[in-house]
Design brief:
By secondary structure, the protein is α+β, with helices and mostly antiparallel strands. 28% of the residues lie in helices and 17% in strands. It has a five-stranded mixed sheet, sandwiched between helices. Helix 1 packs across helix 2. It binds coenzyme A.
Length: 201
């Protein structure tokens, strides 16, 4: 059984790098704070999750509308069970600049250091376009990695979007040996050329 350790302290405020705060909307005029999300933050987490899918592309508005409700209910249940750790970066007037979720997912038994029956999985990473390239996603992921390490986990997983890949690579994440067989062609397509399927997230 892995050793339990105190969770890492959350940094109270994330300083925004000078010169990197300009945006069309003039956001990030003060320090940005990271905090744990609560049930009250579910609307923001759902909105950010939807924003992530919209940018990844390939889903219809109808699919996204349906997914919102399903995700909200699922997140509420997982949060209540302590398996859904949401992190929010908020600006001085409380606007959500970025968020991400560490889901403590079920895992099958394996020998050795990966014997635990749960595995921390990063998901729903999203930074509002007005707050990008300020290091917010990196701060959120760094906190998650520290959290998982403090609890004795040997590995942390995620599925990366094209935009997310450089963020994770910079923090030391590497591609693994996952394989996949897509069983349904995306809507509106009769066949899918090899290698063009979307990744599951
Ligand atoms: C991916 C995403 C979460 C990154 O958020 P962010 O807060 O801007 O990321 P960070 O500021 O922490 O970026 C850290 C580093 O990653 C790299 N990086 C981040 N975004 C990048 C981009 N669009 N292109 C190239 N490199 C990028 C850079 O090296 C960056 O450091 P730098 O700004 O000093 O050069 C954000 O672009 C987003 O919400 N995208 C749409 C949804 C999505 O794809 N989410 C990820 C799902 S896996």
């Amino acid at each position: 059984m892995a050793r339990r350790a105190a969770p890492p302290a959350l940094p109270r405020a994330v300083p925004v790098r000078p010169g990197r705060t300009g945006s069309a909307r003039g956001e990030a005029r003060g320090p940005i704070t990271l905090r744990r999300a609560t049930i009250a933050d579910l609307p923001v987490l759902v909105r950010h999750r939807r924003g992530m899918w919209e940018e990844i592309g390939g889903r219809t508005a109808r699919d996204l509308d349906r997914a919102d409700g399903v995700y909200r209910r699922w997140a509420r249940r997982e949060m209540a069970g302590g398996k859904f750790l949401g992190l929010l970066a908020v600006d001085p007037i409380g606007r959500a600049a970025a968020s991400g979720v560490l889901w403590i997912a079920p895992a099958h038994p394996r020998p050795g250091r990966f014997a635990r029956l749960t595995t921390p999985t990063i998901m729903s990473m999203y930074t509002d376009p007005a707050f990008r390239r300020l290091g917010l996603a990196s701060r959120i992921v760094t906190w998650m990695v520290a959290w998982a390490r403090a609890r004795g986990y040997a590995r942390i997983y995620l599925n990366a979007s094209t935009m997310g890949r450089p963020v994770y690579a910079k923090l030391g994440f590497v591609s693994g040996n996952e394989m996949r067989l897509d069983l349904q062609a995306p809507r509106g397509r009769r066949s899918v050329a090899a290698g063009t399927g979307r990744r599951r997230r």
